[in-house]
UniProtKB/TrEMBL annotation:
Record-listed E.C. numbers: 7.6.2.9
BP term (GO), one: glycine betaine transport
Quaternary structure and interacting proteins, as annotated: The complex is composed of two ATP-binding proteins (OpuCA), two transmembrane proteins (OpuCB and OpuCD) and a solute-binding protein (OpuCC).
Membrane topology: Peripheral membrane protein
Species of origin: Oceanobacillus polygoni
Location within or outside the cell: Cell inner membrane
One Gene Ontology CC term in the entry: plasma membrane
Protein name per its UniProtKB record: Quaternary amine transport ATP-binding protein
Keyword set includes Metal-binding: no
Length: 228
């Protein structure tokens, strides 16, 4: 459902961030992208929702070139979870979750019910947490809200760029378990960037190993040939 075909990205300063990159990510699959810092993981993610465009090559979603989608429609259909917690600090948790559903003109009742379901799903009591401000939550709780906020308007695709790297090991493991549970329940297509091999192996239906802007291998965990 997401297909990269011979994609290259050269930044204006001449940096060749992505070189002849081809990859097919199936519908409902959790694909982890792993590789050392600077290998092009974030660039790859940003090209999916057109924060940046390839210098050459093409990217397709459901068989249609991403350049043929209305850009707002494209982005509304893609949830993005960043490494830095990016909740709106002046909005309550419930308001944070409601941002994209409101843009999509969901009915208030639908938004409230969706928000309750999502909070329940990550083990946060809606009546307690809905009215709190982001600053009143722990780092792990805030990141959990970041994850469910990306899911709120039911996007088909979720991009997660090292979403747990700023967390302590316990919150991290909790959130990894949440993602596995979510993946089972909602069957979304997820692209998950990490530089932690254990995390990549644990979460990925398949793992895409990257190096210097190119794909080295893509396979299921048990099939990967490790070249340390
Ligand atoms: P990460 O390794 O977590 O992807 P980086 O520290 O490499 O993050 O990059 C952070 C941001 O800075 C990215 O959004 C990237 O686009 C930008 N960036 C990285 N390298 C350069 C560079 N050489 N010139 C300009 N911007 C850069
Ligand atoms: P990763 O996410 O794997 O750390 P990035 O995609 O952030 O890698 O970066 C890939 C390469 O592109 C790196 O060499 C980085 O310095 C460079 N880069 C990233 N963003 C920019 C930018 N805006 N301008 C120039 N070079 C960049």
């Amino acid at each position: 459902m997401i297909e990269f075909k011979n994609v290259n990205k050269v930044y204006p300063d001449g940096t060749e961030a992505i070189k002849d990159f081809s990859l097919e990510i199936k519908e409902g699959e959790l694909m982890t992208l792993i590789g050392p810092s600077g290998c092009g993981k974030t660039t790859t993610m940003k090209m999916i929702n057109r924060l940046i465009d390839p210098t050459s090559g093409s990217i397709y979603i459901n068989g249609k070139a991403i350049t043929d989608y209305n850009i707002h429609e494209l982005r509304w259909n893609i949830g993005y979870v960043l490494q830095q917690i990016a909740l709106f600090p002046h909005m309550s948790i419930a308001e944070n979750i409601a941002v994209v559903p409101e843009m999509k003109k969901w009915k208030k009742q639908e938004i409230v019910s969706r928000s309750h379901d999502l909070l329940d799903m990550v083990g946060l009591d809606p009546s307690t947490f809905g009215n709190r401000m982001p600053g009143e939550l722990s780092g792990g709780q805030q990141q959990r809200i970041g994850v469910i906020r990306a899911l709120a308007a039911d996007p088909d695709i979720i991009l997660m760029d090292e979403p747990f790297s700023a967390l302590d090991p316990i919150s991290r493991e909790q959130l990894q378990n949440d993602i596995q549970q979510l993946q089972k329940e909602i069957k979304k297509t997820i692209v998950f960037v990490t530089h932690d091999m254990d995390e990549a192996l644990k979460l990925g239906d398949r793992i895409c190993l990257m190096k210097d802007g190119s794909m080295v291998q893509v396979d299921q965990a048990e099939q990967l040939i490790m070249n340390p």
